[in-house]
Amino acid sequence: MHFNHATMDQFPYPQSRKHLTKHKKRLTQDQVRILETNFSFNNRLEPDRKSRLALELGVPARQVAIWYQNKRAREKNQSLEFDYKALQLRLENVLADNARLKGEVQRLKAELSKIQGVLNSFISPSSCDEVGNANLISKHDLEREFYASLIGGGGAFGGQDGYDFFGRSVS
């Protein structure tokens, strides 16, 4: 088989669709204002309302329908962008709170470790078992003193503010 390669000039091709249809005119500012006003009352368009608006504006009903469709799409995109930015801000705040809380946990663990070390240095396993020795501090008494210092009752571990755990020594 032999194909004859013809040039583009030999065959009449239809013009592009853009040239076959009437050139759409842009809406004027007044027309857009009227559409915006109507859209603000109801963003959906019933057929009779679409026809009435088209007559009032002097444009095809299809152009009114497309304008409404595009307007709804623009509003949806703007809403999604706003929601995305709000979620992004919330995420940043949560991450900052998380980092702050992790630091607080580390600080409290270190503080607890120090307190446990102090408690362990005052209490030996044999001293808690001895009965009748008034000079030895029991673990229970030490814990009570510590708790009193935390709630602001002073005690051996702190002042009235409850934070001076190592300011005074236990006697």
Automatic annotation (TrEMBL):
PROSITE patterns in the cross-refs: HOMEOBOX_1, HOMEOBOX_2
Domain of life: Eukaryota
Keywords linked to the UniProt accession: Coiled coil, DNA-binding, Homeobox, Nucleus, Transcription, Transcription regulation
Comp. bias intervals (Basic residues): 16-26
Family: Belongs to the HD-ZIP homeobox family. Class I subfamily.
MF terms in GO: DNA-binding transcription factor activity, RNA polymerase II-specific; sequence-specific DNA binding
Protein location: Nucleus
Family matches, as SUPFAM superfamilies: Homeodomain-like
CDD domains: homeodomain (cd00086)
Described function: Transcription factor.
Keyword Coiled coil on entry: yes
Key word Transcription present: yes
One GO cellular component, as annotated: nucleus
InterPro entries the UniProt entry points to: HD, HDZip_class_I_plant, Homeobox_CS, Homeodomain-like_sf
Residue ranges of every copy of the Homeobox domain listed in the record: 18-78
Coiled-coil region: 70-118
Main location: nucleus
DNA-binding region: 20-79
Protein name according to UniProt: Homeobox-leucine zipper protein
Annotated stretches, region: Disordered: 1-26
GO biological process per UniProt: positive regulation of DNA-templated transcription
